[in-house]
Backbone:
């Protein structure tokens, strides 16, 4: 960037009287793309102005990657020299947009001409000026209508005045304007368009080896095929499996993360690689590629997908260790550097050395792993610990994969520092875990979700809300029992267009920690086979299923941007709404975030945000219970007992506005 | 900008594990410089982070324009991956700054080593890794101390451990780090450094022809020389004169903007140019260049300066019109296009056509006008209607002038749309008129001055606050009488480090409008000679002088950034403080903004912002009246009668903090 203003005079073309600035959305000066999903739109705003009093015409330029020319759409004045316009994004891939502005000399002339005509001033000279502009444009554009208009102006009299004041003429002149006279914003901004599931998805994480219906026999991929019916009945559309690759033997971890395993213990699936293969192999105890093919096929039948885990690290037994020792860091004694968080040592894990002199072949190989599983029907990847690999690697990898496979979705596991988490999202991850798991009070939730949904962060960061994961059994869940699980699942599923649970531990409300003060599970499935009775009494499966059905049936919950918080007079009660753009579908959720006690209070609705009249009554229909209540005005009473149900998920049904009448008795 | 991520693998140098983002201050992605005055400092902040757990070292790089190398200063961690550092700017001119960051591999190693040592782990291999890093750095930097440290680490035993843990060693290694391993923020950001008067100035505008002490005789530059003593006694340091050039005859305006002047009427000074000359001439009725030389010299003796008006436009009689008709726009009938705001016509004014095919010679000529007056000792210019000339012209002109004369100050008259006003400031104007004149209520003032002083706008926009100008006699002043003038002068002089008045109309509380609803003065000096009796009873001169003395004696009032508003329980009372950085000088102002009635109420001070203890008593010393009050805690009572004085301008005097004891009895 040259910040030195020119003190010599360059060509006239080097300056333009029109300025464009403050273009939004724009991430880090255009360094990163914004994100959308198919059929969404991009609302672009910009300041545009000039010296003096001339009118400015502002236009939005956009194109799909690969197209040569821009599509041009007008931007409307929003007042205070700001303009806005929008375009819809079509298929998956990348689009570009920018802003163009120009002096609208003819419209400026017409505006002044009208004032002169109203003041009954002498108009001959001004008619000649207008005619000259029309003639010039006629010659350039070969639009004979402009030539006829010029002649009408020159003819004088009332006909000339009315021809000059024809608003259609100014529009026509704007359409015929010389693009060379316009200034174009110097940056082409990018939008990455993904399929809808990048925005709206419901995930279920499950260890295949825990999927066996028979106690005592470890689960397999074949069991997962059967389990798909259960997961589908819960309403999820993504089944995410922790790594399914062969597990290393050396330094294998035992039950409860023991470093002294008993013979026959299965080890951690994240210790990837054994003599049976590495990241492109399936652990023999889980089954074959044919089993995997069946799993993918059955998921497709159920309108679901299989997501795999990308854990780019090796056990000491991974074939890469012998074949490519140059991809690992070596200690002075010649041994390979295992993972550490001093003084802790993880001798079952060898990280890759992304700065290895042979980094290119390593990066290519890792990309080939993703391609390999895409070849086996996987289009969604959950990425393990992306923050321990270079940012440049992810930007390269995701761009490279998306170039051939724009429908591939990446979920970033990054519970690390906020700026690192956001950077990973900017680099291309479709979705990211967020800090939801640790935001429990209504104040924390409000602050955090305003940051995620009402600031420019929403342009690049799509949160995926997980109440639990194999690594995270929060203190809230440990202490709060099944009611706490119900609170968290309603919050996750209604605050987030994407959410997920680690089951069956979640729906069984498994809440025993490894030890006091730990977020690890006791008898964690990371280190041992567990058996779950899916039909156990007290399972939260039914409420999970109900919430997922509500999500599918209500488009309001399928996007995050409309999230709006409403006041309550009891801090244990949080209230928020989501709505479709046309307000045809409005979901109002009220949650008692205290899993121990019944709470009641008054919610104070922002009726304007809900498109409601100040006085008109409306119906709130609780989609969790089927109950319907008549509310009126902003203040309404709620009472929620966590021993029954800690939440209302209301659909607003109106009778005051005719266009939404149909909905009232639905 | 290439927003396409590389999908092919480039050189290793093309990526770096460290990211720098969110660098502040930065205006429009580095497109425009920030502003400082001599001896101020620039506090720079940036996010810097890496993948994984390595420590990052962040440094501030800065240099004066023309210097080849960067000066490097460490940036301290502010938490959450943010770093801060600062540098002081020296002489007038331009400086550059940017941010550099690198992995601090040795410090990361030392941090881990310490944890391993505390856990009594085997350290031999880690000592060898550290020794190897030290050796490599020793070879590269020829610092033998690093070689000795390597040997100490290799010697093993307690000596090796303590050598490894020596914090001085990590610092030394950081100082010897290879700059090639660092990442440098891709933009060099610029700061324009001006002299102090660009930040802190007190302006007095006066028509020379109204400066005569004898009624009936028009004033001259020689009268201005004498008037300087008066203006200086009021405490002003800039005397700004409307255009002093010959005034055109054709279409000359008469008294009260009449288009039918009587013979002998003097015309508007902004209708520049007659057969006596143009922008490089002095109107014969005002005097000679020798008179002007005496004026400049006398001002210098009084530590004042003369500011001239740059009004780039011509009367029909300007020599340019005949010599350079190509610099003007022509109408179809061959006449030159006069200024218009349809249906209004200003036939006494010909605007330049900045887009003329011969624009280069026009721009050069206009620059030569500025150079001409610089040659006659003028270093401050007030620019008339900059928003009617192209932005590119101002950016070019100011850069060009500053290159040879970095001490030249430009004040932008731009009461136009806010975005245009800010753009002109970004382009290089030192100071700008602002919307102060129309912000009267405490709420309006608070909102507006928070925008000006507590947002990034302050980095490029320096407001100059004028309660009145020859064009602006606000309704507030018209209706409020002398008390209103007192309110506005205290507000302007304490809210703004730069302020100005158009006198003697201001201190004489002249408040007769041209007509109801107009902001123009009756008998405006723009169109006629006025005579003022400076010694008239009831003049506000004494309070003006007192306020300007307070400004000179209290550094807190000489900058805008510390402005802090404090609550009051009466909307007619506004309360705010300004303080020096070390809090040695704190001015607390309370103003009754209702010029009609006495108001009383409680101010609720933000004691923390004032560096005061919650309980400790303190003294407030009213510098306007000399009265002293003892206050305690945040809530204190005030009562202000506009018929006496509408404001307190308190200096806080403390006895609770020893370092400020000295001040208490001052």
Residues:
């Amino acid at each position: 960037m040259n910040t030195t203003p020119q003190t010599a005079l360059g060509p006239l073309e080097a300056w333009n009287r029109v300025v464009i600035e403050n273009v939004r959305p724009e991430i880090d000066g255009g360094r990163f793309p914004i994100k959308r999903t198919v059929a969404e739109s991009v609302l672009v705003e910009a300041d545009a102005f000039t010296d003096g009093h001339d009118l400015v015409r502002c236009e939005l330029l956009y194109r799909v990657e690969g197209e040569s020319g821009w599509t041009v759409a007008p931007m409307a004045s929003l007042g205070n020299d700001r303009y806005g316009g929008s375009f819809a994004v079509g298929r998956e891939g990348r689009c570009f947009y920018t802003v163009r502005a120009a002096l609208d000399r003819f419209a400026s002339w017409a505006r002044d001409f009208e004032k002169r005509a109203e003041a009954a001033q002498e108009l001959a000279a001004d008619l000649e000026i207008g005619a000259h502009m029309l003639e010039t444009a006629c010659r350039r554009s070969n639009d004979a209508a402009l030539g006829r208009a010029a002649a009408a102006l020159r003819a004088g009299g009332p006909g000339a005045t009315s021809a000059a004041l024809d608003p259609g003429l100014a529009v026509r002149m704007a359409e015929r304007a010389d693009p060379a006279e316009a200034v174009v914003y110097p940056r082409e901004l990018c939008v990455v368009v993904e399929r809808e599931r990048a925005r709206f998805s419901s995930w279920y994480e499950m260890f295949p080896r825990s999927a066996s219906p028979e106690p005592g026999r470890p689960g397999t991929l074949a069991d997962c095929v059967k389990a798909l019916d259960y997961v589908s009945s819960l309403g999820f559309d993504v089944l995410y499996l922790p790594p399914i690759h062969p597990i290393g033997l050396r330094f294998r971890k035992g039950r409860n993360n023991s470093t002294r395993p008993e013979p026959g213990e299965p080890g951690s699936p994240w210790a990837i690689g054994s003599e049976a293969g590495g990241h492109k192999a399936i652990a023999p105890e889980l089954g074959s590629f044919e089993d995997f093919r069946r799993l993918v096929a059955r998921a497709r039948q159920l309108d679901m997908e299989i997501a795999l885990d990308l854990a780019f690290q090796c056990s000491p037994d991974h074939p890469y260790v012998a074949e490519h020792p140059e991809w690992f860091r070596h200690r002075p004694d010649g041994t390979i550097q295992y993972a550490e968080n001093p003084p802790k040592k993880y001798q079952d894990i060898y990280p890759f050395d992304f700065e290895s002199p042979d980094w290119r072949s390593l990066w290519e190989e890792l990309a080939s792993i993703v391609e390999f599983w895409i070849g086996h029907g996987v289009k969604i990847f959950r990425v393990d610990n992306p923050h321990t690999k270079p940012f440049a690697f992810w930007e390269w990898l995701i761009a490279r994969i998306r170039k051939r496979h724009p429908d591939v979705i990446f979920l970033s596991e990054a519970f690390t520092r906020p700026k690192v988490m956001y950077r990973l999202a900017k680099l291309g991850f479709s979705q990211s875990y967020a800090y939801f798991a640790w935001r429990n009070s209504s104040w924390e939730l409000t602050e955090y979700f305003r940051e995620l949904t009402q600031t420019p962060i929403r342009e690049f960061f799509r949160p995926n809300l997980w109440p639990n994961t194999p690594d995270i059994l929060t203190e809230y869940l440990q202490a709060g029992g099944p009611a706490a699980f119900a609170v968290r699942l309603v919050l996750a599923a209604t605050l987030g267009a994407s959410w997920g649970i680690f089951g069956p531990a979640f729906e069984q409300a498994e809440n025993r920690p490894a030890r006091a003060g730990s977020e690890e599970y006791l008898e964690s499935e990371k280190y041992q086979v567990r058996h779950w009775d899916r039909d156990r009494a007290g399972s939260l499966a039914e409420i999970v299923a109900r919430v997922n059905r509500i999500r599918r049936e209500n488009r309001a919950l399928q996007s995050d941007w409309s999230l709006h918080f409403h006041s309550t007079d009891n801090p244990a009660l949080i209230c928020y709404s989501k709505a479709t753009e046309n307000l045809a579908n409005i979901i109002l959720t009220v949650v008692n975030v205290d899993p121990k006690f019944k709470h009641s209070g008054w919610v104070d609705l922002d009726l304007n945000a809900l498109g409601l009249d100040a006085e008109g009554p409306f119906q709130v229909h609780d989609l969790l219970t089927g109950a319907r209540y008549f509310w009126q005005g902003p203040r309404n009473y709620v009472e929620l007992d966590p021993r029954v149900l800690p939440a209302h998920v209301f659909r607003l049904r109106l009778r005051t506005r005719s266009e939404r009448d149909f909905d009232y008795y639905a």
Remarks:
- Chain B has a mean pLDDT of 95.
- Residues 114-174 of chain B form one domain.
- The radius of gyration of chain B is 31 Å.
